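Hi there, hope your week has been kind to you so far. Do you reckon you could talk me through the fold, stretch by stretch? Thanks so much in advance, here it is.
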Amino acid sequence: MPPSKQLHATFEESAFYHIICKSIDGKKLFLNDDNRHYFLKRYLEFSTGFVESYAFCLLNNHVHLLIKTKSESEIIAHLNQTEIHTATHKRFLNKSCGFHELIEQQFNRLFIAYSLSFNKMNNIKGHLFNRPFKRIAIRDNAHFTQLLVYIHANTMKHGILKDFTNYRWSSYRAIITDRPTHIERQQVLDWFGGRERFIVSHKEMADFYYTHPMGGE
C-alpha cells in the first residue's frame, strides 16, 4: 500500500512539519541516557543549516519533532560554507536534486547514522527505524499551537510521566529556562505571548489534546 500523502508530505522551503520517526515493531530506540544524548547530538549535526527546530520529545520507541525548513537560498549559502558534501548535496547545488529529496535525505542520514551507532554500542543487529518516516505539513496557526502542546505533553499519553513538565527529554524545559538550546526558544515564547502564557497554555490544553490526538502517535 502506498504511503499516505497526509502522513508523508512533500517538503517545501520555509514550511513547518511534524516529524515522527518510529521504531520497527516497537523496538526501543533508547536504552539509556547516553543514547538519548547521542541522538540529539546527531540530530543537531544533520539539521543545522537545513531546518529550524521548534520542539522535540524523545519517547521509548518514537520521536516527535516540530521543524521549519529553511529557504533554498539559506541552504545553498550553508552548503557553500561547508567543505564536506554528500552526493545529494552536490546534486542539489547543481540543480539536479529537488528540495524535498534533499531534506528527506538529511533525515534518513540521521536515522541511519544513529541506528549504526546504537547497534554497535548495544551489540544489536537489524534495522531500527520504520521507513519512510512520517512528516505532516502544519496546516494553520491552530495546528501549530496544538502541536507544540501535543509534543511536549506526549509523555502523558504513553504513561511515562503524568507531569510532562518534569520530563527531561523534551524541549519544554529548554524553552522555559535560559539554558543554551538549539530550539527557537524566543519565537515559541513570542507565539504564546511570553513565558507565563506558554506555561499556562500547556497546562490548560494538554488534557484536551490527548483525548483528541493528532498524528496518531
